Amino acid sequence: MNNYDIDLDAARMYETLLHGGLALARTQTGYGLVALRPEAVRRIYELKGRPAEKPCVTVGSMPVLDDVAMEIDPATRAWLAHASATWPMAVVARINPASRLLSSFDPYLFGQCTKAGTIATFYGVGDLIARAAELARAEGQLIVGSSANLAGTGNNYSLEEVPECMRAAADVVFDYGRAPYSSSDKLASTILDLTSDSFLRRGMCFAEVEASWNRFQAERRERWAA
Questions:
Q1: CA distance 119 to 7
Q2: 6-225: which CATH topology?
Q3: 146 pairs with which residues across the strands?
Q4: Rg (CA), the chain
Q5: How far apart are CA 18 and CA 164, in angstroms?
Q6: For residue 9, what pLDDT is reported?
Q7: How confident is the model at residue 3 (pLDDT cuts 50, 70, 90)?
Q8: CA–CA separation, 11 and 8 (whole Å)
Q9: Tens digit of pLDDT for each residue in 197-223?
Q10: Which of 9, 90, 100, 141 is at a distance of 20 to 30 A from 66, taking alpha carbons?
């Protein structure tokens, strides 16, 4: 069993990102490139060959969501708190124009991490990135990123699968072994769009997330009809 010093690694990651660096680390659904400054986000797009019109995701937590998003009712928030702690997933929500955290983004970052008035927050990043993101949030910052793969090729679940160009380009690399969730077809996380109550991507644990979401929606309709 590997023993990781998550607190030490998270502090190292955050310091690297704070100074414009790029980190390569494991999420629950594969390795990802994470950044905090515009120059590092630009490197993510270059390394992946990712089209500029495809936004990065923001590392999420319930406190982050409460700040950056709006129009999420208490019942939906409660469901999301449970679901995001149970399965790796991402959600799209309306941007809160009064967000303290989003005010830390310069125009480039804002443009690359939002789309049409919405923001995608990713849950299931694993303990290391989550700890680094909490350090960032405490200082009014947001960590963002994308999967460590060439655009359109699917997630990489071990560090060895990540293209060498990405491993070499990262300013700090954390090998935390194989991702807890993996699939033969290299699935990424499931994405739920809260602005339309629909799924944008059927990814990892889709059946479980969909079933839970459908139960929640059915129970809410029953309460309204009572």
A1: 28
A2: DHBP synthase (3.90.870)
A3: 33
A4: 17
A5: 24
A6: 98
A7: confident
A8: 5
A9: 999 999 999 999 999 999 999 999 998
A10: 9
Alpha carbon 172 to chain centroid distance?
Answer: 19
Cβ contacts of 7 within 8 Å, gap of 6 or more: 131
Residue 145: beta bridge partners? 34, 57
Look at the chain and count its residues: 226
Tokens of 72: 């999420």
Contact indicator for 27, 129 with CB cutoff of 8 Å = yes
Closest C-alpha to 155, from 60, 58, 38, 33: 33
Are 208 and 196 within 8 A, CB to CB? no
* CA–CA dist 79, 144 (Å, integer): 24
* Helix, coil or strand: residue 52: coil
Q: pLDDT digits over 60-80, tens only?
A: 999 999 999 999 999 999 999
Instruction: For Cα atoms 181, 185, 187, give the angle at the middle one, nearest 5 degrees.
Output: 50
Residue with tokens 């399965």: 87
Tell me the three state secondary structure of residue 32. strand
